[in-house]
Amino acid sequence: MKILAINASPRIGGNTDILTDKALEGARNSGAITEKIILSQLKFSPCLECEKINHDGTCLVDDDFQIIFSKIKDADALIFASPIFFGSVSAQAKIMIDRFQCTWVGEYIFKNNYFKKAKNGAFIGVEASDRKDFFDNAKSIVKNLFAVIKVEYKQEILVTGIAGKQDILRYPEMLKSTFELGRNLVLSSKKEAENG
Fold this sequence. Notes:
196 residues; alpha/beta; Rossmann fold; 5-stranded parallel sheet; 6 helices; 5 strands
């Protein structure tokens, strides 16, 4: 089983990155092969809303987004992680998500979706303030993305009050919960695969 994690934080080695790695550690503990994409290390443009588009839901723009696109298709489950900025996902996350507009058009206009295989997904969000309502918009955006790429929103870890780089290391219970998220994502995906 392949578990793909997408880290949308611009800060490598920070709280979102640490939690992403902890979730992947849990997935590996359950026998999965894991991979992490760090969006800030890729070069891709925002959605250009091209007039000419592929009817199969794929994007015509040839940049690093194609890496993300193919890896999501090949994965058996997806973990999406982002810090919360102004009550939303990071700019890196939103740029990537908007590039799936072609998939939305393929699905709802041309009745053809590139992502045929349904899979389970999880969201990890990290917020510096104690405003739990700041997760509402971010969760809505992630759920909309998941719906378009055939990922069922199964689990979430939403952390408030974590601002300084690596402050999450002071909360071992949160690290343990995130490890379990990765582990449970694999186990539930395996169970569903076995049941057909």
